[in-house]
Design goal:
Elements (H helix, E strand, L loop, with lengths): L1 H15 L8 H8 L4 H13 L11 H16 L2 H14 L4 H9 L5 H21 L4 H25 L7 H6 L5 H17 L3 H23 L5 H25 L1
Helix pairs in contact: 1-2, 1-3, 3-4, 3-8, 4-7, 5-6, 5-7, 5-12, 7-12, 8-10, 8-11, 8-12, 10-11, 11-12
Catalytic activity: alpha-ribazole 5'-phosphate + adenosylcob(III)inamide-GDP = adenosylcob(III)alamin 5'-phosphate + GMP + H(+); alpha-ribazole + adenosylcob(III)inamide-GDP = adenosylcob(III)alamin + GMP + H(+)
Membrane topology: Multi-pass membrane protein
Pfam families: CobS
Amino acid sequence: MIRRWLRATRGAVAFLTRLPVASREDHWEAFRSTPGAFPLVGLLTGATAAVPLLASGELSPATVAFGYLVAVYLVTGINHLDGVADVGDAVVVHGDVERRRAVLTDTTTGVGALLAVTVVIVGVALGGYGLAGTSPVVAVGVAVSVEVGAKLGMAAMACFGSAGYDGMGRQFTASSTPNGFVLPGAIVFAVVAFVWPHPAAIALCAAIGGTGLVWYWANRHLGGVSGDVFGAANEIGRVVGLHAGVIAWTLL
């Protein structure tokens, strides 16, 4: 059991981040069938990307926000942004499920893709700017929580979602079962309940909700999830979570 989790986590780090971790085929196979590895990687990437936020209150908010934006994509890479771009084009196209799927797999970059990626990047930057106005403890807590929440949302898609066609999405949905969500879900929600209503807890729940919005749209308009949907859900979840955390800090 422990070895399987170690293999799965290693495979998840190699697949979901740009961190220099060697991975083999058995690591990838373990990751696909162990959705609990998603939030573990979220914890790692969130903590790493949040380092610039430690300067909140010391440096200019704009500088801190820029550092956070750069750190996020240095750690996670831009593969998920590719999913945002493809889903963005599919959202704006007129037509049925088959037409949207065709646009989703088209290599041409359209206006919908450019707009979607721009909104996400600006959203992350502005979220970082908002966090820069809080204390370092709150800022780091929210930044870590949104990554865990977005990855838990991806785990939920793997466990409970269905893929509309063969591809990366089906590799996860076919290998994961609802039982695989029980342990990571129980641990994360127990922590959330313990610290509620801390802005980090609210941010985590909002990040899950953000992934759910993409999942809902994909089920209605694509007939199920795909690799691009997973990537877009991660990015949208992060943006929604960041701003929910900032709003919560402002109001509470």
